[in-house]
């Protein structure tokens, strides 16, 4: 186990280093001068040049790159060009809506996908099975922004059950903020339930056809115990894999939903940062998302040991 963790740690460091490099290169290949954007169209060339010097954008690319790497190793992702705050602080201020949205969306997806996937596999070929496959394909095909707009129109505007947008005021309590996340979470949960449902169904189908499942039934074990204790437990590894990846995707891919519901999360932040050419914020967001992916993959692999004792590293 120690050897495995050491290898994974080395791999994580390599991945983060590559992401740092790619993020630095990509944002500088994009057209546009952040200094000119910050000062506006009325700024003179001298003012733009002076701001570039103050921001360090006049230095050679290699110097900027080395400085960026050195600062990143110390946990300093730079200073936001527009917020005039450390990038870590900017990201931390906007992490709460995104993280809670990802968690609630994943819970919604699991509540929808897991029982339906199990029942669909158990009743293979039935109307429930065919209907679940069709519903999963429909949920995956419909864009999340369209689902969100429909929910806004009927559940928020017409019925007034939930807020249509925002995250509550500055003095809003935790319950009020979570209430603002209900519709976005349902929107993302429905969209992402499709993949979990299909994986759950496929894994359960494979396990239900195994010899030891037939043996358990032949011994007179109840169907509920066969399905939940034997089949579901052994089908858990593929399901855990897709759940872990779904959570990482929810954190990094909630941009459209956050825009539709006007949530002050990381998705909205990175869109605005791209429009403003706020290099440090773009780089910092990419690094945080990459680190999240690597960490989720590691936790998923370790969770295999809990679910299935036969797994060895």
Automatic annotation (TrEMBL):
Topology term for the membrane: Multi-pass membrane protein
InterPro entries referenced in this protein's UniProt entry, alphabetically: BPD_transp_1_N (IPR045621), MetI-like (IPR000515), MetI-like_sf (IPR035906)
Localisation per UniProt entry: Cell membrane
Occurrences of domain ABC transmembrane type-1 (ranges): 95-304
UniProt xrefs under SUPFAM superfamilies: MetI-like
Residues spanning the membrane: 9-30, 99-122, 134-155, 181-199, 235-261, 281-307
Sorted UniProt keywords: Cell membrane, Membrane, Transmembrane, Transmembrane helix, Transport
Domain of life: Bacteria
Main subcellular location of this protein, as a coarse class: membrane
Stored PANTHER family: DIPEPTIDE TRANSPORT SYSTEM PERMEASE PROTEIN DPPB-RELATED, PEPTIDE ABC TRANSPORTER PERMEASE PROTEIN
Family: Belongs to the binding-protein-dependent transport system permease family.
Protein name, entry field: ABC transporter permease
């Amino acid at each position: 186990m120690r050897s495995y963790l050491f290898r994974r740690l080395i791999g994580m460091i390599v991945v983060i280093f590559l992401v740092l490099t790619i993020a630095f290169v990509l944002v500088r290949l994009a057209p546009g001068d952040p200094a000119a954007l910050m000062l506006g169209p009325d700024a003179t060339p001298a003012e733009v040049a002076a701001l570039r010097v103050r921001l360090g954008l006049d230095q050679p690319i290699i110097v900027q790159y080395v400085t960026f790497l050195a600062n990143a190793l110390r946990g300093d992702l730079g200073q936001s060009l527009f917020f005039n705050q450390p990038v870590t602080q900017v990201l931390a201020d906007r992490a709460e809506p995104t993280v809670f949205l990802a968690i609630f969306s994943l819970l919604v997806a699991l509540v929808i996908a897991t029982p339906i996937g199990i029942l669909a596999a158990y009743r293979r070929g039935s109307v429930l099975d065919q209907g679940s496959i069709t519903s999963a394909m429909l949920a995956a095909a419909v864009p999340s922004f369209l689902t969100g707009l429909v929910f806004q129109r009927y559940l928020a505007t017409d019925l007034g059950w939930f807020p249509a947008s925002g995250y509550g005021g500055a003095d809003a309590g935790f319950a009020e903020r979570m209430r603002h996340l209900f519709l976005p979470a349902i929107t993302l949960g429905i969209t992402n339930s499709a993949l979990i449902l299909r994986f759950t169904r496929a894994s359960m189908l494979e396990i239900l056809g195994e010899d030891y499942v037939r043996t358990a039934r032949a011994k007179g074990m109840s169907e509920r115990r066969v399905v939940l204790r034997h089949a579901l437990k052994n089908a858990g590894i593929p399901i855990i894999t897709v759940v872990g990846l779904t959570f990482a995707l929810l954190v990094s891919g909630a941009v459209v939903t956050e825009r539709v519901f006007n949530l002050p999360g990381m998705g909205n932040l990175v869109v605005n940062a791209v429009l403003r050419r706020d290099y440090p914020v773009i780089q910092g967001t990419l690094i945080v998302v990459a680190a999240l992916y690597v960490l989720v993959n590691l936790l998923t692999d370790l969770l295999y040991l809990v679910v299935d004792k036969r797994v060895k590293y």
